Description:
By secondary structure, the protein is α/β, with parallel strands linked by helices.
Amino acid sequence: MNRQVKEIELLAPLTGPVVPIEDVPDPVFAGKLFGDGIGLDPLDNILVAPCDGTISHLARTSHAVTITTGEGAEVLLHVGIDTVELKGEGFTPKVKEGERVVAGQALIEFDPDYVARRAHSLVTVVAIANGDAFQIARRGSGMMQSGRTLLLTLVSTGHPAVSPTASDAERAAAIASTTTVSDPATGFTMTESTVAVATQVGAAAEARADVTLAHKGGLHARPAARAREAARKFASKVELHYGGKAASLNSIVGLLGLGAGEGANVTVVATGHDAHEALAAVIAELEHDAPAEHEQQSPAQAVSPAPRTAATSRPLEPNTLAGVAASPGVGVGTLVRWDDGDITPPELATGTPASESRALDKALAVVDDELKSTVHQASQRGAVGEAGIFAVHRVLLEDPALVDAARDLISLGKSAGFAWRESIGAQTAMLGSLDDTLLSERAADLRDIEKRVLRALGLSSPSRARDLPNEAVLCADEFTPSDLSGLDTSRVTGLVTARGGATTHAAIIARQLGIPALVAIGDALHAIPDGTMVVVDASAGRLEYAPTTLDIDRARAERARLASVREQNRKTSQLAAQTTDGHAVEIAANIATVNDAQVAVDNGADAVGLLRTELMFIHRPTAPTAAEHAESYQSIVTALQGRTAIIRTLDVGADKEVDYLTLPPEPNPALGLRGIRLAQVRPDLLEDQLRGLVAVQPYGTVRILLPMVTDVNELIRLRARIDELQREMGRTDPIEVGVMIEVPSAALLADQLARYADFLSIGTNDLTQYTLAMDRMQAQLADQADGLHPAVLRLIAATTQGAAKYGRWVGVCGALAGDPVAVPLLVGLGVTELSVDPVSVPAIKARVRSLDYQLCRQRAQDALALESAQAVRAASREVWPLD
Ligand code: PEP
Ligand code: MG
């Protein structure tokens, strides 16, 4: 007979969004050293009991409390991170040890402003201290309401619940060995003091031994990382002593700082119950001279060109790297490393220490992900040395010597960027002062991660202050849109990046500027020295470095030819485009600002097919008011001189972030509250925007476009709201409302959507991402995430067929519309509007004029039966060769 398992329900002790335990900004909690649990980012200031029980422990400093339930589960509640250091300031206990409490009863009151200013983070952790006896069966997600929402459900493991004895003591030893955080007040003795651990564990031992370093060149990053790995397998804390200094094996930076060269005699000291085993493992690592691999090289020197042939399958010529074309054309010039300039973050934080600390965590996680994929790519190519170097960079990212120093500065009110730069600066200065060239060179590794993290924090070097040669090919890890907005376009002949993709917003800007751009080249790009002459053949997906004079002459000739074709196209750009057999196609422009509107008009755009309104929300302290919206749209409509504008409502989330929106953290933002779904949590933003849109004069010039629609429900609801607003604002004429087809469900339900929408506009950037399950921001997938994939084409066909049932027209406003190889197929599938970057309008009009519509229709149907994007591209190029 099944015995019913009794469940213990824990209510949220605070109001606020859930933070998964792995994301709690403290390695001790995230590593579950206090037990499995969950975090909450508090929005209120009273910690309440999540269940009935007895207060078995109240921290002396009142920042943490443990409740033991009737069943014996020990529930630790820890307010904020590193709050023991506040020594009780800002906390008022509401209960005493030994007191019985009921669920919802106040336990600790705290001053959120005071604590947030001084602690690393306000994130509060609920952890099950005796995980051997109770485990978590279910956990809540999203927003929690204090004392009301179910946070965790526990079940007994069947092992008897015991009071903290051996296992807790071991946990204490483990904590002491893996962290520098000290928190003697929680009852779980997070102490660095080996005496305290020994006393509590009763079995702690110290073991020490001298060892001569066998590694060529001494204790450098790779051997230090390996020794750290060896030590991590044990609970004991291990230190290295040399020249009167000591460093924990946890900290690569600390180990490098010892300056222990080849043949140096160092002392290894291990403390904990498995000290002898830990000591033996670390010594074995230090005495073993592993092959030097690329230890002596900087990452840039070590990387070998990635044998990727992104744009075509031709083999690579020598001195050539492959990339993904983000903006077509050919550029010749001197390579200028754009991201080498110093990034100077503002010293003072704009947010609270808690929010700066979170920003740093987020940036570290982003960089860690990037490095992880670089290591993976390098290992797949067999580039062991390169993989090893970047693997060490990942270890440096979590180095307590760097991260803790940065957090200290953040707690003093400094910005995350400033704190990170200072913390790296202190270590590079120390390494630079050592009398060892190899160690001084390791400073370059630190500078590399410094820049990566600063970039991930959204900071970049001041671009306008740079002196550029007459012909400059700018090279960066990745350009941010703001890097490109101030470029001197008369000197920049090409853009090349190690990362990025063809649909990132920086790529979109490059196309708007008409500068050839090649992205996703990989880290091999950074191995090309600054000042090298290069040829960027973006259309062929190739970057040639150190080309011959003949190569340069050929590239210049091709550039001149393309310029003359452009000039020809410009002459007819103001005329409407139709195929040779008289089928009209509207060529519209994608814009974001009033300046773009002017460029669109100058280039002959028939209309604006997509106004991305995100720019109106970014780079501001607060969201725009309805009046500000109306003013912005009005100025754009006026600049369009009678042309219509399709204005898309706010599409933030995923690749488009707006700082002040403080949306709940999401594990997978591309699948979360983005686009129209944002209105579920911030209806006010959409409401103001719709009011602004409805106010624009003259009527009929504006069409509203809703992003990320998945089915008719969202459309019907918003349509009704727009009608209501129109009535309120005294407008009687109808305003056209369209939906973006960006997710497969919308394409499949196009007929249903067409019933309620006036038009459909296909966003091929997202439609490709969601159909192929390939992140549009993922550089490694950039060449595969191709909108000409037959699966995407079939969804486009489904859209035009669905729309035809209700006589609606279909446009394409994703990057595919501006791809000359795709244009004949899109037209053949029944798309009647192509919205492209303003500068591409003349070329796309010329392309349409060269086509026979009937042939397009036939060949588009054939393309649906092909098996890959490459096959579709090849077939299109064969029927409709490019200029
Ligand atoms: C798209 O997804 O294709 C699109 C046009 O929208 P965005 O690139 O702004 O996401
Ligand atoms: Mg989109």
